[in-house]
Amino acid sequence: MKTVFKRTPTLKNCPTHYCPGCGHGITHRLIAETIDELDIRDRTIGIAPVGCAVLVYNYIDVDMVEVAHGRAPAVATGMKRTNPDKIIFSYQGDGDLAAIGTGEIIHAAHRGERITVIFINNAVFGMTGGQMAPTTIIGQVTATTPQGRQADDQGYPLQISELLAVLPGAIYVERCSLHNPAQIRKTKKAIKHAFELQVNGAKGLSLVEVLSSCPTYWRMTSVKAMEWIEKEMTKVFPLGRLK
Ligand SMILES: Cc1ncc(C[n+]2csc(CCOP(=O)(O)OP(=O)(O)O)c2C)c(N)n1
Ligand code: SF4
Ligand SMILES: [Mg+2]
Q1: 69 lines ligand 1 (CB under 6 A)
Q2: Which stretches does DSSP call E strand in the chain?
Q3: Which residue CA neighbors atom 1 of ligand 1 most closely?
């Protein structure tokens, strides 16, 4: 029998703690594959978020540090500046990066820090129970917007990638999605490109936003969650390379 697919070595062989249909696990695999394909496992250091992916270091077999909610770009800055030969990436949710950590990501990008950021946008605060995030779309029901988000009361969804793309220090910004196999392949390509830029010494920050399902707090089946990303989320967060 011919093996056509196997676990990439940097992805640890362990049971998942994620809910069925969650996008975090897929993204972990894409990052692990990238690290193996670029042969950078021994010099990559990751930064884990506070959020459902707080345990990302249980899955990706490289050195990782855990930092306070939202502070990853600031910590990554210090790590990269003191260890320029290392490949530094942060892994951050939308609560982490687009709420409490908005200042950190904007200034890290503005300073042109030579780091790679993987930004998981699932339109909610997953870990804490599905509250509204800055990325929650208009009309979306969450634990804190039981009538659906209303612009009059809760403001508009924050398109953080568009904000970052105008900064000269952000050299690569792309928004991808995990809602079908073709999109997952595009996400892999984008993640690999973002890491490659850093490996090649490119002068600036690279960020890949990933539209990712949270069936648990969207209160949908996994299949419906994929459809919801495609039909609703991509209207607010259009896919493609912003820079
Ligand atoms: C300084 C601080 N403020 C608030 C919290 C509570 N908290 C933990 S996870 C989280 C939000 C997680 O949402 P997100 O970053 O979108 O990750 P997800 O779970 O959706 O992947 C919050 C507010 C915290 N741990 N630390
Ligand atoms: S709550 Fe949402 S983001 Fe968290 S593990 Fe479950 S599906 Fe994933
Ligand atoms: Mg989230």
Answers
A1: yes
A2: 44-48, 63-66, 87-93, 116-121, 124-125, 131-132, 170-177, 205-211, 240-241
A3: 69
| Dist. CA 50 → ligand 1 center (Å) | 5
> Which ligand has the shortest distance to the CA of 68?
1
Distance from the alpha carbon of residue 217 to the mean position of ligand 1, in angstroms: 14
Query: For 135-175, what is each residue's pLDDT tens digit?
Result: 999 999 999 999 999 999 999 999 999 999 999 999 999 99
Q: What is the pLDDT of residues 35-68, one digit of tens each?
A: 999 999 999 999 999 999 999 999 999 999 999 9
Q: Which two tokens stand for residue 166?
A: 């105008």
**Integer Cα distance of 114 and 77 in angstroms:** 8
* Backbone dihedral angles phi then psi of residue 205, each to the nearest 5 degrees: -95, 140
Q: How many CB atoms lie within 10 A of CB 84?
A: 10
Hey, is 111 helix, strand or coil?
coil
Strands 44-48 and 63-66: parallel
Ligand 2 atom closest to the Cα of residue 213 is: 7
Q: Strands, DSSP E only, in 14-154?
A: 44-48, 63-66, 87-93, 116-121, 124-125, 131-132
CA of 118 to the centre of ligand 2 (A): 17
Ligand nearest to the CA of 91: 1
Distance of CA 101 to the CA centre of its chain: 13
Q: What is the pLDDT of residue 1?
A: 87
Reply yes or no on whether the pLDDT at 228 is more than 90: yes
Give the ligand 2 atom nearest the CA of 18: 5
User: What token pair was written down for 11?
Assistant: 């992805």
Does the pTM of the predicted model rise above 0.90? Answer: yes
Q: Whose atoms come closest to the Cα of 128: which ligand? A: 1
- Which tokens belong to 167? 């900064």
